[in-house]
Specification:
By secondary structure, the protein is an all-alpha fold. The protein contains 20 helices and no strands. Helices cover 67% and strands 0% of the residues. Keywords: Cell membrane, Ion transport, Membrane, Sodium, Sodium transport, Transmembrane, Transmembrane helix, Transport. Belongs to the sodium:solute symporter (SSF) (TC 2.A.21) family. InterPro entries: Na/Glc_symporter_sf, Na/solute_symporter, Sodium:Solute_Symporter_SSF.
């Protein structure tokens, strides 16, 4: 990188901070900070949903898979995500929106206290929060790795730079800043992706290379849809897992649906995100598939192939733009995760730990939300410095194995708890399925030797699913109060489905509404099942 590339990169960081400062004016309370007050247009929500779904790991770990196996990287990654989001467009997106518009919650997990009980809510909140610290740590390490290739700065310096810039704009501006920066990042990434595709096509003989390169011996087998450990079984397992994860199972995507004005708008947001996942990764992956024709990676896993190819093919200025594209994905995902985790901590965990948190004023709750965001980013940056240790092995291991494997036990009670067919599954089913899923992850990854990758990934979520459904039938725990929660989430014939945004913050000033000992709403609570929640507002 020369001075022109650095100018592009520094200018990008400056714009991101400026957007955060501008968004600060739109933040009056925790409802604005966590769900944009229910005023986010569907197209912005859809782009934000898409951008918050992947990071620079695509240009490192998945670039290595694309270099080695070709089209398999798309077929077994972005394609099942697109299909999963399309499934959730009708199944989950509108119901997640109703959590905010009808139950008046600001955190995706707030409803769990009344859908199950306080123990279940806390188990899912703590385990999900710890998992996301590790997950985001891997994302910081990925972008720092790329930055190191281009600039020569150390891994820890790269983590610090990206973390601090992200922390400024997402802490100041909340979900509005996340979404608006993700829109800008999408535009930048679009330009960078097209520039890289054009450069590769020019190097390989023009537009016709799109269909002629596959006959070259260096790309033998690269057109196969599944290859290596990424088998058809892996594809089906990944589709199953990503249907839960990318429809809200890891919370940050759920916030995008909650932020739209209505359930109908949330559905449109999901369809847009699904379309982007289906089409756009093809543009990004093609240069990676052709990388064996252009560069020889220095790393055994070829995770540096895309970065090396970028450095060789693009002129200065465009090189800086592509590096900015790397940053855009990572900062989008990490900032959205930080906001989601801050919501869960502030709204679900802090009120249980502290009596004072249950009586926070608007100002105190918003301050706590911002400090929680800072703390999460700091912890994840600390984890990032250890991501290549023997415990984590490497970046792609963290992303594929840890996140995909551990997400299921957390997401199953949260996501299926929204649906009427699972109304009989109560706290026992939720907690047992969660605990057994975590044990299945440990057993297949560390307790047994020689377990295939697809078994390691699918066994935790499959164990959780089977036990959640089975215990719901063997030990039904549906009650009128829990059925009332489900009615509010599932009923379509209600004005709030087509109504406007919140007229007040969801539970602002009372993050712990409800008794911390029993999970039963206190008098005057707006929690689901309480008299105040019996009628929609607005």
């Amino acid at each position: 990188m020369n001075s022109l590339d650095w100018a592009v990169l520094i200018g990008y960081f400056g714009v991101m901070v400026a957007i955060g400062l501008w968004s600060h004016k739109r933040i009056d309370d925790v409802g604005d900070f966590f769900t944009a007050g229910g005023r986010m247009p569907w197209w912005l929500s859809g782009i934000s949903h898409h951008m918050s779904g992947y990071s620079a790991v695509m240009f490192t770990g998945y670039a290595g898979i694309a270099y080695t196996y070709g089209v398999t990287s798309y077929v077994t990654w972005s394609f099942p995500i697109a299909v999963g989001i399309a499934i959730g467009a009708r199944l989950f997106a509108p119901r997640l929106n109703r959590l905010r518009s009808r139950l008046r919650v600001a955190s995706p997990l707030e409803y769990l206290k009344n859908r199950y009980d306080l123990r279940t809510q806390q188990a899912l909140a703590w385990s999900g929060m710890l998992l996301k610290i590790v997950d985001v740590g891997a994302k910081w390490a990925a972008i720092a790795t790329l930055l190191s290739v281009f600039t020569g700065i150390s891994l820890n310096q790269g983590i610090l730079i990206t973390g601090v810039v992200t922390g400024v704009y997402c802490t100041v501006g909340g979900l509005w800043a996340d979404a608006l920066t993700e829109l800008g990042q999408f535009v930048i990434q679009f330009l960078a992706g097209i520039a890289m595709l054009a450069a590769v096509l020019a190097e390989l003989g023009g537009f016709s290379a799109l269909w002629t390169v596959w006959d070259r011996p260096e790309l033998q087998g690269h057109a196969e849809p599944t290859a290596g450990p990424y088998t058809m079984t892996f594809l089906l397992a990944y589709l199953f897992i990503k249907t839960f994860e990318y429809n809200g199972g890891m919370w940050n995507q759920a916030q995008r649906y909650m932020a739209t004005p209505s359930a109908r708008e949330a559905t449109r947001s999901a369809w847009l995100s699904a379309a982007l996942w289906l089409v756009w990764p093809l543009v990004l992956f093609f240069p990676m598939w052709c990388a064996p024709l252009l560069v020889t990676p220095e790393k055994a896993d070829a995770s540096d192939a895309y970065a090396l190819m970028t450095g060789e093919l693009l002129p200065h200025g465009l090189l800086g733009l592509v590096v900015v594209g790397f940053f855009s994905h990572t900062m989008a995902m990490c900032s959205s995760d930080a906001n989601a985790i801050a919501a869960v901590f502030t709204r679900d965990i802090a009120p249980v730990l502290s009596k004072a948190a249950r009586g926070w004023s608007h100002r105190a709750a918003l301050l706590a939300a911002r400090w929680s965001t800072v703390a999460f980013l700091a912890l994840s940056m600390g984890i990032a410095t250890q991501v290549d240790s023997p415990a984590f092995k490497d970046i792609i291991t963290v992303v594929i194995k840890w996140v995909a494997g551990l997400m299921g036990p957390i997401a199953i009670p949260f996501m299926l708890g929204l649906l009427r067919p699972f109304r009989r599954s109560g706290p026992t089913a939720a907690l047992v399925s969660w605990a057994a899923g975590l044990f299945a992850f440990w057993l297949t990854n560390y307790g047994l030797d020689g377990v295939e990758l697809q078994i390691q990934i699918v066994s935790p979520v499959a164990t959780s699913l089977v036990l959640y459904v089975l215990l719901g039938h063997l030990k039904p725990e549906d009650t009128p109060e829990r059925d009332a929660v489900l009615d509010r989430i599932n009923t379509e014939a209600d004005g709030s489905d087509t109504g406007g945004p919140d007229t007040e913050a969801p539970g602002a000033g009372s993050p712990g509404a409800g008794s911390p000992d029993t999970g039963t709403p206190d008098a005057g609570s707006t929690g689901a099942g309480s008299p105040a929640a019996a009628q929609p507002r607005g």
